[in-house]
Amino acid sequence: MYFLIGVWGGPRRMYAAVKFFLYTMAGSILMLLAILWLGINQGTFSVTELIERGNIPPEIQFWLFIAFAAAFAIKVPMWPLHSWLPDAHVEAPTAGSVILAGVLLKMGTYGFLRFNLSMFPNAAVQLAPWIAGLATIGILYGAAVSYAQKDVKKLVAYSFGKPPGICDVRFVCPQCSRN
């Protein structure tokens, strides 16, 4: 995506490409550190094995959940980590916008469901109200900002970020009821 935006994008393509890269890299580094901690301290990098064992201490689950959630919240994009998306959508060529809306934005929601909720169940219960709250703010904020847009690409950027937010609320609501 960096090259799609940076090479074939609009007039502010380099700004949008670098912003996209920095946000994505920041989240990826946090998740990489969490994965390394898991592999070294749990003796395996196998997600299936980590889920089956379920022996990650609850106080550690909290921090690992935060690290994974930061990476996925950037991808969703969840408020307040969403500011890279409008720039990327506006400056990306049409094919880039389609890839952003159709694939990349859905990866964050999948990550929350596949990794955060299954590998860190105690932290998921503890942090579910926060995730639901941030996702709800993002949905309402995105709707209000979408309504005010005159640029179609910005309209798409703000409106396409909301269905994954709705999914995030849906996935964490059962965790909220466990509190």
Describe the fold and architecture.
The N and C termini lie far apart (39 Å). The chain has helices at 2-8, 13-42, 47-53, 58-75, 84-91, 94-119, 121-148, 152-160, 162-177. It is globular. The protein has 179 residues and is an all-alpha fold. It contains nine helices and no strands.
Oligomer: single chain
Task: Estimate the global geometry from the Cα principal axes.
Answer: globular
* SSE-based structural type: mainly alpha
Largest sheet: none
> Number of DSSP helices?
9
State the helical fraction. Answer: over 70%
Segments where pLDDT lies below 50 for 5+ residues?
none
- Radius of gyration, whole Å: 17 Å
| Nearest-integer average pLDDT | 81
Termini separation comes to 39 Å
| Count of β-strands | 0
Topology of helices and strands:
Layout lengths: L1 H7 L4 H30 L4 H7 L4 H18 L8 H8 L2 H26 L1 H28 L3 H9 L1 H16 L2
Helix pairs in contact: 1-2, 2-4, 2-5, 4-6, 4-7, 5-8, 6-9, 7-8, 7-9
Structure keywords:
globular, 179 residues, 9 helices, mainly alpha
Quick recap of the structure?
With 179 residues, the chain is mainly alpha-helical. 83% of the residues lie in helices and 0% in strands. The mean pLDDT is 81.
